[in-house]
């Protein structure tokens, strides 16, 4: 039972999950083009979805409810 609950070491080269990244226009232009090649070189089998988000909307997400 302990083995089932113990997380395995993450091996990016074997990962086949889909990840969604929310990014502002600035991040999409300034960061994403430089980060994606590095990510895919280490985890070639993942799927990434980059969705645009407005700066104010992103701030609301970070602040949480209330």
Automatic annotation (TrEMBL):
It comes from the Bacteria. This is Putative transcriptional regulator, LysR family protein.
């Amino acid at each position: 039972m302990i083995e089932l609950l113990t997380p395995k070491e993450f091996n990016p080269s074997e990962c086949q999950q889909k990840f969604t990244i929310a990014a502002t226009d600035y991040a999409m232009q300034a960061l994403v083009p430089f980060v994606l090649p590095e990510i895919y070189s280490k985890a070639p089998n993942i799927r990434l979805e980059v969705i645009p988000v407005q700066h104010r909307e992103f701030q609301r997400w970070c602040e949480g409810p209330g």
